[in-house]
Amino acid sequence: MGMPNETIQENPAVRPVSSVFGTIVGSAPLRILVLLLLLTVAPVCAAFSLTALLNGDIWWHLRTGLWILQNHAVPRSGLFSQYIDRPWVDSSWGFDVLTAGAYKLLGLRAFAVLLMGFKLALAAVTFLLAGGWRRCFWCAILLSATAQYVITDLLLRPILFSILFFGVELFLLLQSRRRGDLRPLFWMPVLFFLWANLDGQFLIGLLLLGLYVAAEVTEFLLRKSGVSSFPAPVHSLAKVSAIAGLSVVATFLTPYPFQLFPSTFQTTYSKVLFVDFQEMQAMDFRRPQQFVLMLLVMAAFFALGRQRSRDLFKLGAMGIFLVLAFRVQRDVWCVVLPAIAIIADAVADWRREPEPHNGSQPWKWEKPLLAVLVLVLSLAAIVRLPGSTALMNQASRAYPVKACNFIRTNQLPGPLFNTYYWGGFLIWYLPEYPVSIDSRLSLYGEEINERYFKVTGGTQRLETDPSFTHARTILLERNSGMLKALTTLPALRDQFRVAYQDDVATILVRESPLQ
């Protein structure tokens, strides 16, 4: 005889573990907290580590920006250098003005505040590219955090604008392609107008736009020839080409319309950069970030393969920028951003969740609350920043502040021969002494730059450098090899006198002409 049918009552107090976990993970307070940490941890840490002060380039950008504001013009010759007659194109003049304006408001704290703002914007852009608003929240958090970890050594330079604008451009292009909507592309000319006036690496943005147009044209031709495996074009090629053409034209709307392109290329990919700067070398895979980058790129290609993607734009972007990023460590961002966008698209496709339409988006009330929290936390961090005097005291540990004061007080004779890495700082702190060299590569050209590094590296004779032979005051790093040679070699030590020395710098004054 069977047991009578019994109705089993589920205990409402007992819930499946997966349901509880899903409720916790999907709760709005947790999402806000995690996103708040994602957006603010890196900016706040950067501000209090004072890494913005350790960038030698930012000082000449500041001095140039102040000169532009004072003279209501852009520089066209070698200001603040001993090569005043050489032509110079300041391809980042907009960045210089922004830096100078922030300095007038905040003093030296402006460096930390600007770097905070850039890192906050980078976190937002990577979260957006990773599909954070498309119901892929936790995937977007992971991808954004990974991107911020891989894109290291972010100093306060104009290239930060290129990273942000590249991300925005990629987002607009993917949105237009994903939705079949031409309207996101209408922002392209505006984007490139701003980009060309802020940083010279807008050339990478033009390359990305060129890949987009090439993909649209190729897919159109393949479909027209009967290859049905490629998606039908969603845009009018004439309109896409017109927008791309307007974007190129927008890059000429600068104070240097025809000089900008060659000067920018020289500044960005100069021969001396590849020889003497570690950031321009190929990856050596000695840092964990480089291994994470390799895994990220592999995951992006795996995602394309898993989708059996025939998207020529994504394939072209990953292929071209992979070569560039692995060849030049400085430009890893140009493959990181496409990689996280491709992975996010693959995850969204795997989950098969359609992108929400306007009016049904989540985060309706969470976005304003998050914005307020980010603003409050950022303002609290800014208030806690040290003042300009304290910051200058900290800068004196890396820059020759005391040595410059000695030169100014004792009115040591010019011309000055200085260390390359201090050139930018001297332009700002000691402008009455034109520098012999600084990091404006397009100003000095290949010959002068190469000669300087060979002379200071000991591979070329000192008398071959006119800036050294004519110098009467030499300002060098305390532990530099050149200083050791000048003060110990019998043929040289009698020609120079040590006028000042501290833990950072040494000043030599020429006693007799170089033999």
Notes on the structure:
- The protein is mostly helical.
- The chain folds into two domains: 38-354 and 367-381, no CATH class; 396-510, no CATH class.
- Helix content is 59%, strand content 4%.
- The protein has helices spanning 17-25, 28-49, 57-71, 93-106, 109-129, 137-150, 159-179, 188-196, 202-224, 237-250, 260-268, 271-276, 288-306, 312-327, 333-351, 366-383, 388-395, 401-410, 423-429, 441-456, 466-469, 481-488, 490-493; strands at residues 416-418, 473-477, 496-501, 505-510.
- It has a four-stranded mixed beta sheet with strand order 1-2-4-3.
- α2 packs parallel to α6 (137-150).
- The termini are far apart.
- The model is unreliable at 1-10, 17-24 and 355-360 (pLDDT under 50).
Gap between N and C termini, in Å?
118 Å
Residue share in β-strands? under 5%
What's the total number of strands? 4
Q: Any idea how many domains?
A: 2
- Which ranges are low-confidence, i.e. pLDDT below 50, for 5 or more consecutive residues? 1-10, 17-24, 355-360
User: Could you describe the largest sheet, including whether it forms a barrel?
Assistant: 4 strands, mixed
Structural class: mainly alpha
Q: What string gives the helices and strands in order?
A: HHHHHHHHHHHHHHHHHHEHHHEHHEE
Which radius of gyration do the C-alpha atoms yield? Answer: 28 Å
What is the share of helical residues? 55-70%
What would the average pLDDT be, to the nearest integer?
A: 86
Name the overall outline.
Answer: globular
Strand line-up of the largest beta sheet: 1-2-4-3
Task: Give the number of helices.
Answer: 23
